[in-house]
Write a structure and sequence with these properties.
It contains 8 helices and 10 strands. Helix 2 crosses helix 3 (about 45-60). It has helices spanning about 10-25, 35-45, 45-60, 80-85, 115-120, 160, 170-175, 195-200, and strands at about 65, 70-75, 90, 100-110, 125-135, 140-150, 180-190, 205-215, 220-230, 235. It is globular. Strand 1 and strand 2 form a beta hairpin.
């Protein structure tokens, strides 16, 4: 129900309610939304107000429009990965390559203070720690360390994680109803420690690009922490593909 006393513009309230319904699973990933007429009637607003709300949801990739077919809940796929999220490209020609991902470690642990603050959980809450090695054109290029709150992915196991048939974010969405919409990132320079150097085929102390990222779902809820170390001898970070964050 729309709060008539809400301070935000009416279309913002419609957007909030629609997003909340999607987050609760009323419409699953890939499902078509009801017609604009039905949604406008549901919220007792004009078609113009409803369209303005959906326009903003399209921009934020909560939903996607398909001409002549309707508006659908956004879903993660390999295609979405390459065109909206993956920002590590080959130097010179800036070609995009689909990464080959190998999971090196999967274990249960407890959230450290800095992690807990970023994930909005209590210190010591159960988390999963996952280490992935990404190869581009057959060469190890990116070392990822992920931290996932166990409460969001209650039955996740190494087998489920490694035997997924699509991207990691597709797994989050299809199995747990968690849709990663965007990511907050910090980029910095780093030096390869002994472990990273060995895995990436570098000398200890070699320069790397470090990407620290918080993946965000509906209402900016944090659902994953990720630290990526990138070998930039043959690759670089390019952010003009219309998305944020590296996703596998």
């Amino acid at each position: 129900m729309i709060d008539a006393g809400a301070f935000a513009p009416l279309y913002k309230e419609v957007k909030r309610l629609l997003t909340a319904s999607i987050a609760k699973g009323e419409w699953q990933a890939g499902a078509v939304l009801p017609s604009e007429t039905r949604l406008a009637q549901r919220f007792s607003v004009s078609i113009g107000t409803l369209r303005k709300a959906i326009d903003e949801m399209v921009v934020e990739r909560i939903v996607v429009r398909h001409q002549g077919r309707g508006t659908f809940v956004a879903s993660h796929s390999a295609n979405r990965l390459m065109f909206h999220f993956f920002h590590v490209v080959r130097r010179g020609d800036r070609a995009r390559e689909v990464p080959e991902t190998k999971t090196l470690a999967f274990r249960r642990a407890r959230a450290e203070p800095a992690e807990a603050a970023m994930l909005h959980v209590a210190v010591g809450e159960p988390v999963y720690r996952v280490r992935n090695l990404l190869s581009l054109a057959g060469r190890p290029t990116i070392l990822d360390d992920l931290v996932l709150p166990q409460a969001l992915y209650p039955d996740l196991t190494e087998k489920i994680f490694t035997q997924r048939d699509n991207t990691i974010y597709h797994l989050y969405q299809s199995r747990y109803g968690i849709n990663v919409l965007r990511a907050s990132e910090r980029l910095s320079a780093a030096l390869a420690g002994a472990d990273a150097a060995k895995l990436l085929g570098l000398k200890k102390g070699a320069p790397l690009l470090e990407i620290s990222r918080v993946a965000l779902s509906y209402h900016n809820a944090p659902v994953e922490l990720r630290r990526s170390l990138v070998d930039t001898r043959e690759h670089e970070y390019l952010s003009d593909f219309g998305g944020t964050g590296i996703v596998q």
